[in-house]
UniProtKB/TrEMBL annotation:
Residues that hold substrate according to the record: D89, S90, G91, G92, F93, D143, Q194, G221
Function, as annotated: Catalyzes the base-exchange of a guanine (G) residue with the queuine precursor 7-aminomethyl-7-deazaguanine (PreQ1) at position 34 (anticodon wobble position) in tRNAs with GU(N) anticodons (tRNA-Asp, -Asn, -His and -Tyr). Catalysis occurs through a double-displacement mechanism. The nucleophile active site attacks the C1' of nucleotide 34 to detach the guanine base from the RNA, forming a covalent enzyme-RNA intermediate. The proton acceptor active site deprotonates the incoming PreQ1, allowing a nucleophilic attack on the C1' of the ribose to form the product.
Organism per entry: Eisenbergiella massiliensis
GO-annotated cellular components: cytosol
Co-factor binding comment: Binds 1 zinc ion per subunit.
Gene designation: tgt
EC id: 2.4.2.29
tRNA processing found in the keyword field: yes
Residue ranges of every copy of the tRNA-guanine(15) transglycosylase-like domain listed in the record: 10-372
The protein's assembly and partners: Homodimer. Within each dimer, one monomer is responsible for RNA recognition and catalysis, while the other monomer binds to the replacement base PreQ1.
Protein name according to UniProt: Queuine tRNA-ribosyltransferase
Residues forming the catalytic site: D89, D271
Residues involved in Zn(2+) binding: C309, C311, C314, H340
One BP term from GO: tRNA queuosine(34) biosynthetic process
Amino acid sequence: MYRLLKQEGRAKRGEFETVHGTIQTPVFMNVGTVAAIKGAVSTQDLEQIKTQVELSNTYHLHVRPGDKIIKQLGGLHKFMSWNKPILTDSGGFQVFSLATLRKIKEEGVYFNSHIDGRKIFMGPEESMQIQSNLASTIAMAFDECAPAKAERAYVENSVARTTRWLERCKAEMARLNSQEDTINKNQLLFGINQGAIYTDIRIEHAKRISELNLDGYAVGGLAVGESHEEMYHVLDETVPYLPVDKPTYLMGVGTPANILEGVERGIDFFDCVYPSRNGRHGHLYTNHGKINLFNAKYELDDRPIEEGCDCPACRRYTRAYIRHLLKAKEMLGMRLCVLHNLYFYNTMMEEIRAALDAGNFAAYKKTKLDNMSHPED
């Protein structure tokens, strides 16, 4: 159940009620691909850094340890000891990005596991069954993520098939949610809008999937090779054709600037590996832009990563110490950097929600972007 609390232009401030708790939107989902955030971050840590939603990956968990094993252990929430919402992506993107050998057919996709090469088949029903076994809060529909610059004819065929797959996902989800042994009988389904950078295809697809009255809608197939300007243009054109009274999710995006631009265009949900991936390499987000702790100038810097930040790293440790840990390849260095970056993102979302509540998001966005484009000395 999604409640639209406020709008400022197209920007939305909402609440999304789920069986695992209410999500305040706009929200950034913290990415734990294999049921863990890379960088030795525990679910206990996630609670402390203001995480609302954790995102895990259907394909990776199907390959290892196996979704049936997770079901036997009581579902993903129990398995990873996390009681707040979890979104699982459908595995579609991984099938297309990781699989070297794959064959797309109407029934689904035949491909080889990137781990051991074994043959796997995944179609809409299989993706829904795996996600039902995982018992996530929100399941994503199985789709094809066509390359941003793919030929128009290819994209048209791909989107038409994605629509047919979505109808099969919806039917299979309804069947699974009515089964006695299903762990989460209230699992929600989000459909995915595709169409590469062809806005007319995107708009037609948005209209078509909106008719299916799903629990939420994602814009997929962006941040895969097109420019930021092209991405924003697609959002400008497409989002108005998705239901305003349902959550909208921009998949795999992005930088703090991308998120601010996305919110302005009506996006509720975001996810991206940037904060954790960059953190593991010593690249840290601050209100004055990114800093790289490997730079020699931080060797004697006894300040926290960011003055006034209340994350576990900044409350206690100096840049010099964390830099030393990274240089010495101590896991604690990575962990502290990932915690800081996720806390930065989660706090920025809190600020965005507060600005929307107060009706001054436009001013907040301008100030935030100005500050982040003026790095400190």
